[in-house]
Design a protein that fits this description.
Elements lengths: L2 E5 L8 E3 L2 H9 L8 E4 L15 E5 L5 H13 L3 E5 L1 H5 L1 H7 L4 E5 L4 H10 L6 E5 L19 E6 L2 E2 L10 H4 L5 E2 L2 H13 L4 E4 L9 H9 L3 H22 L6 E6 L7 H9 L2 E9 L3 H6 L8 H13 L3 E8 L8 H11 L4 E6 L7 H9 L5 E2 L2 E2 L23 H15 L2 H7 L6 H23 L3 H22 L23
Parallel strand pairs: 1-3, 1-4, 2-8, 4-5, 5-6, 6-7, 8-11, 11-12, 12-13, 13-14, 14-15
Antiparallel strand pairs: 9-10, 16-17
Helix pairs in contact: 7-9, 8-9, 9-10, 13-15, 15-17, 17-18
The protein binds cobalamin and iron/sulfur cluster.
């Protein structure tokens, strides 16, 4: 009985940007007696059913965007006589769907770190049950990934998680509902050990696959002080202290390491935190800007963000402290108008964000937005016989691009407007101007290449309506990726040691 772990994707690029972490975590959570799992990431290469034998186990991890391909793999694996197990956020939210559409023998809901060995042991003993509850594993029990299984020449970035869960409650995001609002921080030792492991293997770019790297804000601490709530205050301070401890350890790693994380804009008000990030080699962060107007922010429950000129100042603050921003913007909010696209792309350029992504408002299951939309969207609006409120089951070529009705714009206006924002922000002259953030010519060329790759992978393959354009973009991305990867990997450092913890940090971290 061999274990196969498969990350589904319709498009394979030969080289992928970021390692899908779950594959390497589940491989590590697989007890030794089951042998080394076969890992297949379809963003690199398509799954070959011939590799599966009767009685093998095929574990498939799905989020909403790749669920349909995941279900196809379920069928292919079943036809080979395998036992099919689904996990991941989408299977957690729709276990019945994975059972029906993906012919799952079992579903794992929640975190797989601890429950996966139970699933395999049950299977071994002929006691497999249809559903397992993995729950929310606490930070200390997260299983470190098996990076020895990393395919050679596959990825540009490794991924290591340092914290899971987010205290906020944005309407379009499922994290706070599925992963909880209490940050679950991993032990500093575990995180550093994994990073050293990756660097030993020649990966020096590492995405910190965190929901929110800044889970305690200065405002949270002030509020706890005002409420005279010593228990809450101590807890918040301890979370903050651990962040600083982690960053102090990351600081001791080789200088060529580059980390990137996801963070809320509030960190801009905390210069000590930003400086610690910079020293810790955290060179960039995705900041969920979402909207540039106060009305837009209110619509997505993100009032803690700034709008207009305040937003420009806050974003510039990151750069001043040496942290590049990947600004993430959403289009299609009810308050958006036809001029929003141009205004947003210009603001992004003016605020000095290094990269930007422009996404169309999508009601993802598990979110407040989805619940509302599902209530309002009649079950009777069908495409290919599938209700639009189950859009992820509609084949890609027929799937609508915009789902939420807009009071002032047609779906096509939102789609072409979004495309125009990508075009404006990623035109070669604008990229070249932004590339001045790196000094050498080689660095600037790498910057241009990466910007073009990012755009091909994430914009053109997602927004285009005809499959010929999608295929053309995928082909271009494949070509760029082939060259871009060389700029990311470094010579392995097999002798790199795990740095010791520095002398305990000062009062700075407790505030
Ligand atoms: C890092 C990250 C990214 C990175 C890296 C992706 C990658 N290659 O891995 C980037 C920035 C590229 C990214 C992109 C996107 N992401 Co993202 N991402 C994340 C994030 C923050 C962490 C994921 C991670 O690595 N976690 C660590 C691993 C170990 O956890 P895990 O994947 O959940 O796996 C655990 C369990 O789910 C379970 N499990 C998973 N699979 C399986 C399989 C089996 C068989 C079993 C037993 C168990 C199991 O066990 C694992 C260990 O506990 C999550 C948020 C989150 N909290 O999940 C969002 C998240 C997954 N992303 C999300 C979205 C929407 C996207 C985008 C669509 C955004 C966009 N609009 O472009 C794209 C999609 C890109 C794509 N096609 O894959 C949503 C998904 C919502 C949904 N309903 O599907 C999430 C939940 C965030 C959110 N805001 O709601 N993402
Ligand atoms: S701040 Fe980010 S991770 Fe947290 S709820 Fe909002 S979108 Fe989700």
């Amino acid at each position: 009985m061999r274990i196969h772990l498969i990350n589904p994707s319709d498009l394979s690029f030969g080289t992928a940007v970021i390692t899908p972490r779950w594959l390497f975590v589940l491989a590590a959570a697989t007890p030794e007696r089951f042998g080394t799992p076969v890992i297949v990431d379809e963003t690199l290469e398509q799954f070959d059913p011939q590799t599966v034998a009767a009685g093998d186990v095929v574990g498939i991890g799905i989020h909403t965007a790749n669920a349909l391909r995941g279900y196809k793999i379920g069928h292919l694996a079943r036809e080979r006589g395998a036992v099919v197990v689904f996990g991941g956020i989408h299977a957690t939210l729709f276990p019945e769907e994975a059972r029906e559409r993906g012919v799952a023998d079992a579903i794992v809901r929640g975190d797989g770190d601890l429950i996966w060995s139970t699933v395999l042991t049950d299977l071994e003993n002929g006691r497999l049950v249809p559903q397992y509850e993995g729950g929310r594993v606490d930070g200390a029990s997260f299983v470190p990934a098996r990076w020895d299984l990393l395919p050679e020449k596959g990825y540009m970035w490794g991924s290591v998680q340092t914290v899971r869960g987010c205290p906020k409650h944005c309407s379009f995001c499922s994290v706070w509902r599925t992963d909880g609002q209490t940050p679950r921080q991993r032990s500093v030792d575990d995180v550093v050990q994994e990073i050293v492991d990756l660097r030993r293997r020649g990966l020096r770019f590492i995405a910190l696959a965190d929901d929110n790297f800044y889970p305690v804000t200065l405002a949270d601490l002030e509020a706890a002080k005002r409420r005279k709530d010593p228990t809450q205050l101590e807890w918040l301070q301890s979370v903050r202290r651990e962040r600083f401890e982690l960053m102090a350890r990351l600081e001791r790693l080789p200088d060529d390491l580059v980390f990137y994380t996801q963070i809320t804009m509030e960190a801009a008000e905390d210069p000590e935190f930003l400086d610690a990030m910079r020293r810790a080699h955290i060179r960039g962060a995705l900041v969920g800007v979402e909207s540039v107007t106060p009305e837009g922010l209110k619509a997505v429950f993100k009032n803690f963000n700034e709008a207009g000129e305040g937003l420009v100042t806050r974003l510039q603050e990151f750069k001043k402290h040496g942290v590049h921003v990947l600004g993430s913007f959403i289009f299609g909010l009810p308050t958006d108008r036809i001029d929003t696209f141009e205004t947003t792309a210009s603001l992004a350029q003016r605020a000095g964000v290094t990269f930007a992504q422009f996404v169309m408002l999508t009601p993802f299951p598990g979110t407040v937005d989805f619940a509302k939309w599902e209530r309002e969207e009649p079950n009777t609006r069908l495409v290919d016989g599938i209700p639009v409120n189950r859009y992820w089951l509609i084949p890609h070529q027929d799937r609508p691009k915009v789902y939420t009705p807009h009071p002032a714009m047609s779906p096509d206006e939102i789609r072409t407007g979004t495309q125009s924002a990508w075009d404006q922000f990623y035109k070669t002259s604008a990229i070249w101007e932004r590339s001045s953030c790196v000094r050498s010519i080689r660095g600037r060329l790498a910057f241009v290449l990466l910007s073009k790759l990012y755009r091909q992978m994430y914009a053109n393959t997602g927004i285009a309506t005809d499959s010929a354009r999608v295929q053309r973009s995928a082909k271009r991305a494949r070509l760029i990726a082939k060259y871009a990867r060389k700029l990311f990997v470094a010579a392995p450092m097999p002798d790199l040691q795990v740095p010791a913890a520095p002398v305990p940090a000062t009062s700075l971290a407790t505030m």
